[in-house]
Amino acid sequence: MAILELFLILVIAVLVSALLDRVFPHIAAPLVQIAIGLVMALVLSVSPIIEADTELFMLLFIAPLLFYESKELDKTALWKDKGVVLSLSIGLVLALMVLVGLALHLVFPGIPIALCFAVGAALGPTDAAAVVALAQSTKFPKRIDGVLSAEAIFNDATGVVAFQFALAAAVSGVFEPAQAVGAFLLEFVGGLLCGIAIGALGNWATTVARNRGMESVTFHVLFEIAMPFLSFIIGQSLGVSGVLSAVACGLVFNLRGNGTGADVSTSMIVSNGVWRVASFALNGIVFVLLGLQLPNGVEAILSHDVDAVVGFSAVAFVLAIVVAFRFIWCLVVAKASRRGWGDEGENLGLARTAGLLTFGGAKGAITMAAILTMPATMSGRGVLVFVTSCIIVATLLLANVVMPRLAPRAAIADANEQTRQDKARLDILRSVLSRLGEVEGDFEPGAIEMVAAEYRERIIAAGGMTPADKESRKLRLEAISWEREYLESITETDGYSEDDIDKMRGYLDQKEYYYAERSDWALAMKLGWKRMVSSTLSWAETFAVSLGLRTSPDGDEARRYSDLRSKCAAYAMDKLAKKASENVDIAERISSLIRDYRLDMNRTLAYTPQLEDVARASSEAAQLRLEALCWEEELIGEWLDEGKINDSTAKAMRRTVGVIRFDAEDMI
């Protein structure tokens, strides 16, 4: 029960970090999660000594994380830089294992040297995902980014395997170098071969299922999720490295290479979404655990008869060794490489390249996950957990501070190019939305509104908003205020009941909430509360009608509300037309807003739609949706030919169109 309670606490902490990540976008998620764990330990006194079963922890955390990272890796870039990657992921990890182990044993001679070597092995792996989260505004040159991503996968595997050997030697007290090297090579090579075989078998199984008409998004996604666990378990049962088996399986197993079509696109989108959530959750849990363990580490330092100053000095000493030795190693690697490291022919220089490779190799979840598997009964475990935790935090902070200053100009230009591509993507969607307003006579108003609402949602989801900017948003909010002005001017002699007016107020509340500035928390919370109350009352009314406690609204009531809604819109349109004549600079925005009001009026003037009207509008909406997708594809092709978007953006947008078309055709 205690384990279940701890798990729920960790999940809640990760959920809170996800919310805070949206509120404070400039603070990286790993640092937020560490801070949450530390606050829980200090304020809530939740600071258990975590001792995880080694094999179970590797299976549940490390295997799926490494599988996902290797699945997403650029294989072409990996092959081009295989020598550099192997040097960093094997040679550097093993060298750091020895250096850090000796340094720790020198500072803490009472701790077994094998255990110190285990910590050195755990500090070898890097966490590229953490660096990406920390430096979202900084983009590495493509080659450096590829090397760091590939290194993070293979040095994770190397570090974990070396850690397991050193930990086994610390537990048993027996270590024979020749035998250990032979066993290490067997586990390393055997794990790779095992993972390649399992990944190839998985590709074959999914291909057979698709060729026989058994394709299913659910089947493919669940099958892919099961692959890292299967490869780990099979590898361990064969006496080879289950971690390396999961890595190799991820390298060769990839659903996106198993055919084309809407089903493959859907599988890819769902799979990527599931893996992103799982990766965030697993990494988040480990970082929260890191924060929880920091107070235990301080207590362990003091109970180990070590002065706190000496303890933090040991952290600084080991950190200096890790950073300095990695910088020297990267400097040699950069010097030995015959290819340039900068984008667009830019010469970064050896020191700058080595700096990016050094600080881009921050420590993270894999290091902490490995350390937590050390038995709690081991001498000096708390001290080593504290030292490791501090080094992880320090490398993450160093990456956040140093890397933006080392980013080359080409990388900044690349970031600007991405901004341009994002804007172009939004402009295409807005063009289609604008074109929907030109087919009023060919389709039912309700059908047009359905499809237009879908495109507005896509624009918002893509980082934009209709209206396109703050001025347009203000204009829409001003129009809503005019609707309220007309609504409040109505008296009892106008023929509308109090219920009609309250219903209209609720509708305007929802519109205002939709277009309100999301950073205005007070307004958003106020309108959100009104929206919740309105929805609750509506649900209660429907429930009462179903029980016979209240009669359903009659036709006159529906007509009165539709008429009131149309009159409010007409009043706002008159105000907008007057404003357009006074300020020609915003006439285009006002024209777009008036067109939206007309669409809404055409729909509401139909009073309460009957079932056959709803069915007809839905059918026409399905046809119009397909036509809009054709417009979107035409614009993608035109903009690609004109150089307004690049191949990557066009490919991503066409993939999205394929998925939506698949769903739209299924609805006809």
Short description:
This protein has 668 residues and is mostly helical. It contains 25 helices and no strands. It starts with a helix and ends with a helix.
Describe the structure.
The chain has 668 residues and is mainly α. The chain has three domains: 2-407, Up-down Bundle (Na+/H+ antiporter like fold); 409-466 and 617-668, no CATH class; 477-608, no CATH class. It is 78% helix and 0% strand. It has 25 helices and no strands. The chain has helices spanning 2-23, 29-43, 54-71, 75-80, 82-107, 113-122, 128-134, 142-172, 177-211, 217-237, 242-252, 262-303, 308-336, 350-359, 365-371, 381-406, 409-436, 445-461, 470-488, 498-515, 521-546, 555-582, 587-604, 611-641, 647-667. The longest helix has 42 residues, at 262-303. The chain is elongated and about 95 Å long. The two termini are 50 Å apart.
Write the layout of secondary structure elements.
Blueprint lengths: L1 H22 L5 H15 L10 H18 L3 H6 L1 H26 L5 H10 L5 H7 L7 H31 L4 H35 L5 H21 L4 H11 L9 H42 L4 H29 L13 H10 L5 H7 L9 H26 L2 H28 L8 H17 L8 H19 L9 H18 L5 H26 L8 H28 L4 H18 L6 H31 L5 H21 L1
How much helicity do the residues have? over 70%
The dominant shape is: elongated
Order of helices and strands: HHHHHHHHHHHHHHHHHHHHHHHHH
Strand content: under 5%
Number of separate helices: 25
User: Which spans have pLDDT < 50 for at least 5 consecutive residues?
Assistant: 606-611
Q: Major sheet, described briefly?
A: none
Kindly state the number of beta strands.
0
Q: Under the CATH scheme, which architecture of the largest domain would be assigned?
A: Up-down Bundle
